[in-house]
Amino acid sequence: MNPQTAEPTRESTSDSLNTREMRRILASSFIGSAIEFYDFILYATAASLVFGKLFFAGMPPAVGLFASFSTLAVGYVARPLGGAIFGHFGDRLGRKGVLILSMVLMGAATTAIGLLPTSAQIGVVAPTLLVVLRLVQGLAVGGEWGGAMLVALEHAPAKRRGFAASFANMGGPAGAVLATLVVAAFSALPDAQFLGWGWRVPFLLSAVLIGIGLLIRVKVAETPLFLDLEDRAERRKIPLLEVVTQYPRNLVLGIVAGMSSYTVQGLMTVWAVAHVIELGVDRTGVLNVKAVGAALTVVGIWFAARLSDRFGRKPVMLAGMVAGAVLAYPIVLLLQTGELWGFAIGLFLANGIVQGVIFGPFGAFVAELFPTRMRYTGASLAYQTASTLGAGFTPVIASGLVLAAGGDLWLVALVWALSFLVSAACVLAVREGRDVDLAGETK
What we know:
Blueprint: H1 20-49, H2 51-54, H3 61-92, H4 95-114, H5 119-122, H6 125-153, H7 161-187, H8 191-198, H9 200-204, H10 206-217, H11 224-227, H12 239-246, H13 248-278, H14 283-311, H15 313-335, H16 340-359, H17 362-367, H18 375-392, H19 394-404, H20 410-428
Helix pairs in contact: 1-3, 1-4, 1-6, 1-7, 1-10, 1-13, 3-4, 3-6, 3-18, 4-6, 4-10, 6-7, 6-18, 7-14, 13-14, 13-16, 13-18, 13-19, 13-20, 14-15, 14-16, 15-16, 15-20
GO molecular function, one term: transmembrane transporter activity
Pfam family, one: MFS_1
GO cellular component, one term: plasma membrane
């Protein structure tokens, strides 16, 4: 078998997503992803505002923030491992059961963070436990996206795959909106109350959200494409081994292409938040702007995904990457104003336009690189590794670049623009997936 093609299987003959079953599937993909990313992004917000002060007390503020961002990176490092583990079982046993397990793990870890004593109470054990729980979060979210995306994509008609797959992508920023608004509401408390107990409430709310998500997720059927493999020898193979030996080129190109979108997230929703607050911008105002930016990302994803079903994944993603390279320096200049309006315009350009346009087609783009028997593993590895390299280390790297430039931000803009151009080259090197059926036969 040619490693660039997939095995034959059936696809829906209807072009409509407006059926009762598809509405349930798309809702499950969106809501489940939103809840899991609420938990994951909640940690990122708290890392910018709280953890450096509570779990790394006694350090200079800049060092504490650096340490806090380092624990944030632990979750991103764990995401590819979670993608490999959950992807293996998702390709061998089915998408649905793995999705339920990932949601339970995420909810348990997030709730536990909300109950965690600080370093002032239990010393070095506190940051150690924080890292462990962040690791569990990373493993869980590593398995979430691939399954949520594939449940929608593998049920969808061929001509609507891009839009269907985007519901998992829209769930991420929707979860970020919810997380940011909840934290913003409690950040309006006096500092002593916010740092004392207010920051914990959003983490404890995760238990309620996970319960709602599970009620929705258990009603979704297994995908027909996976069921086609039930009696085939392909299910007895090791998906991870096949991905890295038969599809290494697709994996690497998918990772680098996806990094562009995640550098936007890491730079603008984590590092830039801390940067402008340090410049004196109002904390609650910054969080409210961040929530609006995430909502604009959802809108951008919606339109870009629909365009990808009409014009192809590659042209749409390339448009977003070129825009990102062109806007990198103007956005950084807006951050340096030290004003809320500057942060708002920069964030809206970066998240609403650049990230939304790139991220909209990305689910279908990366899923179409791999055959059904290893699609969960391959797509998850590409996506989660891109998130680790693109977002997990961006806050730390950006902080280092600012130090290297003597406090100026021009070096951040330069590296950011170059990353968009490298990702664009990788997109150009990949075949267009819009007109390739999931059996790998070009129409």
